[in-house]
Fold these 2 entries.
Entry 1:
Amino acid sequence: MLGRVTLFCLSTWAASVVADRPEADREDVGPTAPASRSPFAYANVDPLDDDLVKPPDVRPTCEADLAAASIAYQPDKLTPLVQPDTKIVCGAPQVVAYRESPAKIAWSPSVLTTCTMALAIARFETIVQEEAVRAFDRRVAHIHHLGTFDCRPMLAFPGWVSEHSYANAIDVAEFVLEDGTSIKIYDHFAPKQPVATTREAAFLRKVARRAYDEEVFSSVLTPFFDRHHVDHFHLDLARTRSDGAAFVKPR
Ligand SMILES: [Zn+2]
């Protein structure tokens, strides 16, 4: 939803800029070859499917992709079913119990999620380790999360289906370094400060920024986004993109 609005504004802006320039200054603005994506980019950047409300599509190569990335997992099931009260279709056709990636972070509780989310979570672990070593000279041993699967509408937008309904999202609350140091989003993110003033805040913000900018996830919502995310990062692979990793001046 937010991604679609952004795309619309950008395309409108680009058209007006070209129209205002003298004829002689205009360059060819025709189609260009798409920039190549990172092999670790799993975000859905296709604007044509933004309005679809249904469980994520099957990724035909997913199990081979998991094996190629040395990700430990077990196939699992959350068969899509219509919930009688909300009429939301919950579940997904391709679900795994995520165990471990080569970055070797332990998750608690255990992670039941879509197959493509498992790939994205493994990439997220790599980013977390790079930034933890940069910030603290230590690796992360554990991540605590608040859940993946929860059949419900979005908290902030009643009537919109949460990606949690498809186990296509995870809410990350705390990172624990190998020396036991705890970095909690609620305690350390400091969303009212435009610029991070602690190592912990800088680490958290950099991790969220990279997770969005490197297209690991479609949505990255942080305490900057709204009050519903004051204690966690919401990471998902929705069909739309939402950047909630940037400071927004309070109104
Ligand atoms: Zn969430």
Note: Residues 164, 169, 171, 234 surround zinc ion (CB under 6 Å).
Entry 2:
Amino acid sequence: MAAVFFFAAYGSLLFEGNRVAGNSATYGGGIYTPGYSNARIINSIVTDNEATTAGGGVYGSSYSSARVVNSTLSGNASPVGAAIGVSSYCGVVIANTIMWGNTGQTINRPRYGAASVIYSIAQNGYPGMGNLDVDPDFNNPIAGNYGLQSGSPAIDTGVDPQTIVAVNIDVVDDFLDNMRSQDGDGLGAGSTGDGSDYDIGAIEVVAN
Ligand SMILES: [Ca+2]
Ligand SMILES: [Ca+2]
């Protein structure tokens, strides 16, 4: 059984500012979204979960929709979708999210339906505006610290999620309740990402 499993088909889940770690299941080691449900996963850290069939961190069932925004998925494992497993006819929109250091294909590509990924770090790459395939330079993931080192490529390279129609979520703070966005690279807004100074991942680097 996944750590977070809400039974209600046609139900709605808001999972915000939480950590889910070290769980296992057949589908959705960390979070499982059932059919016809609507999930929002925001400012959350999903690590070290395992799914034996699909969706190591998160699994989206057929006819469910999920938005994963400003979250960090690392250390998860599954043969299909190590970070995020997508069933056919599932709609997943991923923005400002780090998917790094998972074991297996980062996101699977189902025959029908697909994930839409923007302004995210996806290991081994994923098509979409603003996506990167670079080490996010976590502070100390072994100790569970998924903050970003100075100079991390995730700093100020995200998007203001409220400006994306398919996301439409106003993210005003981070996993640690620090304000978003902040000028973490000290270069002002506008030069990277969509110019909004939003970081990618669950933890925003605080401006000096
Ligand atoms: Ca920033
Ligand atoms: Ca900046």
Note: The two ends are 43 Å apart (CA to CA).
